[in-house]
Amino acid sequence: MASSLGTTERAHSGRRSERFALGFVLTVAPGALWIILFLLAPSILVIAMAFLSNGDYGSPHLPMTLDAFRRVLGFSVLGWSNGNLKTLWRSLVQSATAAVATILVAYPLAFFIVSRRSYLRPLLLLMVILPSWTNQVIRTYAWMELLAPDTSLSHLAQESGLIAPHMGLFPSDFAIFLGLIYNYLPYMVLPLYAAVEKLDWTIVEVGRDLYASGYRLFWHTVFPQTLPGLLAGIILVAIPAFGDFVVPQLLGGNKFLMLGNLIANQFTSTPDWPYGAALALVMLCFTFAGLFVFRRVARRLGRGEGQIL
Amino acid sequence: MNFSRSLRTYLALHSWPVFLFLYAPLAIIVLFSFNRSPVSVQFTGFSTAWYTSLFHNQDILAALGRSLELGIGSASLGTVLGTLLGYGVYRYRAAGLAWLGLLVYLPIIMPSIVFGISEMIFFTYVHQFTGFLSAGLLTMGVAHVTFQIPYVALVVYSRLVGLDRHLFDAAQDLYANPWKIFFHLVLPVTRPAVVAGFLLAFTLSFDDFVISFFTSGPDSMTLPLYIYGAVAKKGVSPEINAVASLMIGMVLVAAITNLLVSRSKEQAQRPSRPWLRSH
Which CATH superfamily does the domain covering A84-308 fall into? Predict the structure, then answer.
């Protein structure tokens, strides 16, 4: 009697898990397979390609070699050059300065929005996000227009001797810097605003009651509470800025390369797929390493901000 | 939170120039789209000539048509796959699939330039070996669906998380089969999220440049590709200013509609909560 009950129960749960599996396959499988087939497989193909030799027209072939990686480090038939290391360095510096600059701009801005009346806050936030709804090419092009040789900004720079007469402010590292801040500022403001909005002000009051003031009050009561938002903002700004392609392409040109347009060059003007694939692998490594480190730090802070990525 | 007067002044002095920084570049584009002079970056007089020539430019009109076709087509498929995925991850997450989360996030995390060249290489080989999928709107669409799926899935998923889990238990207790649950419970309650997901997917596709750049073919130039090509070739030009101004205008219209819709929703809700009508 007891055993027969057991078997019906098992049969029942068996049917349930069967149905469970069927439902899982029908809902999750199409999307997951699509991503596996059209993104995971292609990126594995790219990684494999980095180890192949380059043919005459940029098409890769066997045998396997580490040639592409040697070229990534700057070795070529002409000897060693520091060009690639400079490009990598520029990408790292630009993404770090973009993160720092957007923090400096966004931090007070987040407090400003929160300090306004509650019905104004969504409007102000929308005003911050709105420019990022326009196309990235257009947003970057706007800076070409502002920094061109004949504009007042350029005249100012020419007269103060920062640039030669009749020159524009782009292409330059400075133009890339401005373009990156302009493109990624909203992604710093949003998580910071979320953190500031749910700030627990009673902690600040407690600090004030204990006669803390000014900087100490800020560093010990306000800043720790905004740290998760800050980290989320750094992830959202520094990582895409590091891999950006449009901004350095339009505002830096071939003189001020970042990793993004160095990779693109290997697939457009003078094709060299294995070399481009090896550069892409370098970018992936830095991206995932950055993500890993920042997520680790965010987790250690013990708040749920890891949900963002 | 009561900020002191001096702090409020500081915050305002810091923040209003930031808004200037955000809007001045776009305003300059719109201003110069009405500039009479075709070469100079100085404003020499008012003219709408660039807009007239725009509407006679067959290349731009064709590019706009392709952008819409690509956006609607890819967003439709992306919404179906993304909605199913979002629901599946929510419903069957007990299975504890960390790899699935990672897979869903992959298109978001992947730097777009690496995404783009991966697709390009992949499609080149697929075409070489099978003859299918030559570079064009179809390959662009496949790539766009790939980055749309996770965004739609996330929107639908977060809507489902906000629901009472007991709804599903209740449906099962009433012997609703999975199909019935999906069509009579999941779809109706997630409809706002599915619509929002579709709009998001369309916008992502319409705005995408980098991935489109690497997956497009000779006859599939979309609007962002056209603008990029013209900018790379000619630099600053009044015609591009006019196209860009129109696209900025579209964003403004979308934002104002968004504000009005959310406001009218608030007003529609008000009578049921008269005690909230204080201001």
Answer: MetI-like (1.10.3720.10)
